[in-house]
Amino acid sequence: MQLPEQFENVTVHCKANIYFEGKVASHTLQFPDGSKKTIGLIYPGTYHFNTNAPERMEITAGTCTIQLAGSTEEMTYATGTFFDVPGNSGFDIHVDNGIAEYICSYL
Fold this sequence. Notes:
Layout: E1 11-12, E2 17-19, E3 24-30, E4 36-42, E5 45-51, E6 55-61, E7 63-68, E8 75-78, E9 82-85, E10 89-95, E11 100-106
Antiparallel strand pairs: 1-3, 2-3, 3-4, 4-11, 5-10, 6-9, 6-11, 7-8, 7-10
């Protein structure tokens, strides 16, 4: 998978999305076609996120382990990989060490 190095012609929301006492933070990017993505950082720990719309999480740096809601399987994702999360669902994400960086696209 080819990771983007930058996004052109976007509006960046300056107010950060802060979760879990600052252990997960992201910024929202709004594209001219109305679509949006978030780009962010996840510090070591385990966190649960619920989804409204389907999401694609691209890991741009670091490593994380994921367990989708309703599944007992854990999968590990490293830089250059991605996973999809169904809408109206959720997932647990675990970062052992370092920082995992991501791009979340709302599908």
